[in-house]
Design a protein that fits this description.
The protein has 11 helices and 7 strands. It is 60% helix and 10% strand.
Length: 362
């Protein structure tokens, strides 16, 4: 099956939307520059002056664009200018030159403008449609047209020119909408992923939090039941952690927590999960692992933490950790395993701390 080609918008994500507006303003400036010389050539001086004003306006917009925070007033002025120009040009030279085509193009534009009132686009758009239909009726009688130009070749060329740029505007507006929509979706997805990660990660230790770990337990339990495998749950508690906070301060206590967490993350196998269960309690679970292998991991963690030194000001101290390890599977679900590991942990506390308990003293 062939994959469907998708627009790669990653390169547009960091581009300021103002560059899109700049491109649009420059296009309008160039088109009105052509109109300025055309109306001067055919002797329609009113529209020549109008286009002189339009060129000046879009030139100012292009120069001011990156200094302006709110683009809504400029966009509204551009919409008004295009609408009035289309109406005036059609009245002066007639329907056949295609200036009314631009009214069709700007119909959806009000819905892209950030108006204070949501109803505003629904008011402006019918007015533009009414102007288009009214122009058709008004110019049906050629007597209402100000200038009667009999140059059929010039009329065809200008009609083609206006039609081309009108369709180009539609394509441009549609393209900008599609890219903007995909950028918004991408940014929303990234934000949701970030929020999900923040909801699952303990900000201090960068370990999984308790809520996330409970979800992992459910996955591990289902997998163990499906393939009849075993897994271990190990619950650890930093010994005399309250004394560390009281003696050296909470900042040093946080340093201890972060470094101990880093050790546990380093020594637990990649397929395992490590979390901050609460306070100074840290927990890890390793799928497809029996009690002997789980105990060996816990012992290595204890040894590594015992060898560490912490400096706080001029003081230097060490810490230890006590860990309770339980093997789980079909017969012992994670809910029961957590209780057993917690009981083993506190058995270790009673027996002197700085040890690993899996039912027997290790």
């Amino acid at each position: 099956m062939k994959s469907t080609a998708k627009l790669d918008i990653s390169r547009f994500v960091n581009i300021s939307p103002k560059y899109m507006y700049l491109f649009a303003y420059i296009c309008c400036l160039l088109v009105h520059g052509v109109f300025l010389f055309y109306f001067r050539y055919i002797g329609v001086t009113e529209m020549m002056y109008f286009n002189f004003f339009s060129v000046a306006m879009y030139l100012c917009f292009s120069l001011m664009l990156f200094r302006v925070k709110n683009l809504t007033p400029m966009t509204c002025m551009a919409l008004l200018e295009i609408t009035i120009h289309s109406i005036a040009a059609t009245v002066y030279v007639g329907w056949g030159f295609g200036f009314a085509m631009f009214l069709v193009c700007v119909v959806p534009v009000p819905f892209f403008i950030n108006f204070k009132r949501n109803i505003t686009p629904y008011i402006i758009t019918p007015l533009i449609v009414a102007a288009f239909m009214g122009l058709r009726v008004y110019t049906a009688d050629e007597a209402n047209v100000v200038y009667h130009l009999n140059d059929e070749t010039s009329q065809i060329i200008l009609y083609m020119f206006n039609s081309f740029f009108a369709f180009l505007m539609i394509i441009g507006i549609s393209g900008i909408y599609k890219v903007s929509r995909q950028i918004s979706q991408r940014q929303l997805k990234t934000k949701n992923e970030t929020l999900s990660r923040l909801a699952a990660i303990d900000p201090l230790t960068q370990l999984f939090n308790r809520r996330a770990m409970m979800d992992f337990f459910k996955q591990i339990q289902r997998s163990a039941e499906a393939v009849h495998s075993r897994y271990i749950i190990a619950m650890g508690d930093i010994d005399y952690f309250r004394e560390v906070n009281n003696t050296y301060g909470h900042f040093c206590g946080d340093v201890v927590l972060k470094r101990v967490s880093a050790v546990m993350s380093e020594l637990v196998p990649a397929e395992g999960y490590v979390c901050r269960w609460g306070g100074e309690e840290l927990l890890f679970a390793v799928p497809n692992t029996d009690i002997e292998a789980g105990t060996e991991i816990a012992v290595k963690i204890c040894e590594k933490i015992r060898s560490m030194k912490f400096c706080c000001g001029e003081s230097s101290f060490g810490v230890t950790i006590t860990i309770g390890v339980c093997e789980c599977g079909e017969d012992i679900p994670y809910e029961e395993g957590l209780k057993i590991a917690d009981r083993y942990l506190y058995d270790g506390k009673k027996r002197g701390r700085d040890c690993v308990i899996n039912g027997d003293i290790q």
